[in-house]
Amino acid sequence: MKSICLPIILMLSVIFRTAQADEIQLFTWEEYFSDEVIKRFEAETNHTVNQIYFENESLRDQVMYSGKAAAYDLVILDGYTLSVLGEKGILSQLDNALSDDLPFFTEQSEQACHDYGIPYAYGTIGIGFRNSKVKETISSWMDVFDYAKKNPGRVIIPDEDMDTVAIALMALGYNPMSKDILELKQAFTLLQSVIGDLLVFRNGLGYALDKGKESKMDMAVFYSGEKEQISIATAQDDWEYIIPDEGTLVWHECLSSHTKKPMKSATIEFLRYINNPVNAAKNAQDIWFTTANKDALKWAHKDYTSDKELFPTELTSSKYYHYQRLDYNALKVRANIINVLSNQ
């Protein structure tokens, strides 16, 4: 009797698992989730994770506003955009998506992700440069613009409405979230003065992943954690990352979902899996970003927790700027600046 029932039970178990298998559509930055963690999740649950990549926030936001994001189960969103989309009724409330027995996130990340997102990562914006190529002392945001003018075809600045304009504002000594039209005009003039000297006007990591060892980039605006990925992609081990004297913007990224995309059980399983402290630590270390899961730090290696790029200590809190809600006019000016620069 046992010899007959056991194979049947095993067969029914396989059939049940196959019937329950689902595909999770994830709209995210490239190289933002550990391949090994994803593979382990797929092996343990029989679900599959399909990652669709975007390279800049402007294109991602177009997808969100158009309603096409309803095709995705989860979307990576920055805290600022998440709050705007949430208030417009475009996002689902995810504050109850994970049960209370899961680890808590950092207070700042929870505030940034509000009720519409699950905290994932946070970090800073700084300057990345190759110390074998760049001999000047790099300490200011203005150094990016000066180096670009002196070394055409070697510098990359991202094409982001918020961050690109913020970088120029900080270089000029202004608040990166300034609404002052005269200050924004000066920021535009500064950006326009170097646009023709840039290698490309795009995300530096995206360029590095495309070009690999053929990369001609000496300097770029980096998001913390990208140095490791760019070094691997380009096979260049001489990259450094610094936060300029004028300060930096602190960003938070969250996992969110479109209001027209019902939260399915497979998605909940995925959220629970990557937020298990051990898995969260593995995921963060493999990609080398700062996890918002503070319990994961208990399982992280010392070389990760002591990395000053991920966990900077040298700046005072007054130099850590946070994203603020801007009025329609300030947002429109920023969007127009990037549109004009992109078409030059």
UniProtKB/TrEMBL annotation:
Pfam families: SBP_bac_8. InterPro entries: SBP (IPR006059), Sperm_putr-bd (IPR001188). It is found in: Periplasm. Its main location: periplasm. It comes from the Bacteria. One of its GO terms (cellular component) is periplasmic space. The keyword Lyase does not apply. Keywords: Periplasm, Signal, Transport. The keyword Nucleotide-binding does not apply. Residues 1-21 form the signal peptide. GO terms for molecular function: polyamine binding. GO terms for biological process: polyamine transport. This is Spermidine/putrescine ABC transporter substrate-binding protein.
